[in-house]
């Protein structure tokens, strides 16, 4: 803490169950960090002024993974989705065209270590 604001490296535990581990600047997330969401998702990457910015990896609690770029807290630019299960391939293709993302379909039962080797 500096002037009653979070500064430097630290861990912040939210009452709702989320946890942030990383760097703070002027009370906001800044630089490299990990954010554990209460529902089980995890974001690992860079923050700027409290928002996801630059490179990051988002691990969804269902096993899907997004690795790519963020701007102003949103997925933005080039990125890859690693999907564990696909319900509607037409929707995936439509999303791919709209968001310029690359999708890699992974069959259920693959070891998470194998997925991480791919990214």
List the helices and strands and how they pair.
Elements (H helix, E strand, L loop, with lengths): L7 E6 L5 E7 L2 E9 L5 E7 L2 E9 L5 E7 L2 E10 L5 H11 L2 E4 L6 H7 L1
Parallel strand pairs: 7-8
Antiparallel strand pairs: 1-2, 2-3, 3-4, 4-5, 5-6, 6-7
Radius of gyration: 16 Å
Number of helices: 2
N→C terminal distance: 36 Å
Total count of domains: 1
Decide which structural class fits the backbone: alpha+beta
Mean pLDDT: 79
CATH class: Mainly Beta
Say what the CATH topology is. Histone H3 K4-specific methyltransferase SET7/9 N-terminal domain
Residue fraction in strands: over 45%
* Strand ordering within the main sheet: 1-2-3-4-5-6-7-8
CATH hierarchy: architecture: Single Sheet
Shape: globular
Q: How many beta-strand elements?
A: 8
Largest sheet: 8 strands, mixed
Q: Give the helix level as a range of percent.
A: 10-25%
Q: Which blocks of ≥5 consecutive residues have pLDDT under 50?
A: 93-100, 106-110
List the helices and strands in order.
Answer: EEEEEEEHEH
